[in-house]
Amino acid sequence: MRYFLYTSLAALLGLGAVAMVHAAKPAPESAEVVKAKVVKVDAPRSKITLKHAPIRSIRMEAMTMPFRVSDPTMLAPLKAGDRVTFSVAMQDGELVITQIKAAK
Ligand SMILES: [Cu+2]
Q1: Taking residues 48-63, what's their average pLDDT?
Q2: 19, 71, 91, 100: which has the highest count of C-beta atoms within 10 A?
Q3: How many Å apart are CA 91 and CA 34, to the nearest integer?
Q4: 95 C-alpha to center of ligand 1: Å?
Q5: How many whole angstroms from 64 Cα to the centroid of ligand 1?
Q6: Distance between Cα 11 and ligand 1 center (Å)
Q7: Which residue in 77, 80, 43 sits closest to 64, CA to CA?
Q8: Which one, of 73, 70, 96, 97, lies nearest residue 84 by Cα?
Q9: pLDDT: is 34 or 92 the higher one?
Q10: How far apart are CA 25 and CA 79, in angstroms?
Q11: What is the chain's mean pLDDT, rounded?
């Protein structure tokens, strides 16, 4: 009986921990926001080169690399040296920036 009580308690605590982990995770539709520094802007090609922090959701380490942006008008306010935050998504098998803005 005692064993049963302990295992029930453990199960309840375990469920609570799982619920908390789920609550802490962003909803699937809200993408991870990543910090970066702008290295180069190539608006005519809808490209921007970023020195970015690790992107945990896709297990990418910190590095400098070019990205395509889903909408080139996102690049208008940006220039080399700016600190930004951005999110990426896979679109047609390619990693694309879906939002990017100056960091506060
Ligand atoms: Cu990268």
Answers
A1: 97
A2: 100
A3: 18
A4: 10
A5: 6
A6: 40
A7: 80
A8: 97
A9: 34
A10: 32
A11: 83
Helix (H, G, I), strand (E, B) or coil at 93: coil
Long-range CB pairs of 61-70 (<8 Å, 24+ gap) are 64/39, 66/40, 66/42, 67/95, 67/96, 67/97, 68/94, 68/95, 68/96, 68/97, 69/96, 69/97, 69/100, 70/96, 70/97, 70/98
73 within some domain: yes
- Distance of CA 49 from the midpoint of ligand 1 (Å): 10
**What's the pTM value of the predicted model, to 2 decimals?**
0.71
Contact 54, 17 (CB under 8 A): no
Domain count, the chain: 1
Q: Angle CA(61)–CA(33)–CA(97) in degrees, nearest 5?
A: 80
